[in-house]
Design goal:
mainly alpha; 3 helices; elongated; 89 residues; 2 domains; single chain
Length: 89
């Protein structure tokens, strides 16, 4: 596998030859598919990560699960946006 420097120099050479976009598109479309996350947390996504208090005094599972639900929803939004833009297969 080429080093980052070698890969960068190869890409620069292809840019000079006008082949970089074609190469990039082939690499993107041959990338493995990214699946959306399945949210089984039972939490509610609301675009806000909640502060979670000490877990040794009371049940904080709802806030924790809500945070995981928020993160899952955002990751899935990003995956969808990247697929729509053609950046992921």
């Amino acid at each position: 596998m080429p080093s980052n420097r070698t890969a960068a120099l190869q890409l620069i050479g292809k840019i000079r030859e006008g082949r970089a976009l074609d190469t990039l598109l082939r690499q993107v479309h041959s990338a493995p598919a990214v699946a959306s996350l399945t949210d089984s947390t039972g939490g509610s996504a609301n675009n806000t990560l909640q502060a979670v208090g000490a877990t040794n005094g009371s049940d904080q599972s709802a806030a924790i699960n809500n945070n995981f639900a928020d993160l899952s929803a955002k990751v899935n939004e990003l995956i969808t946006a990247f697929k729509t833009a053609g950046l992921l297969p």
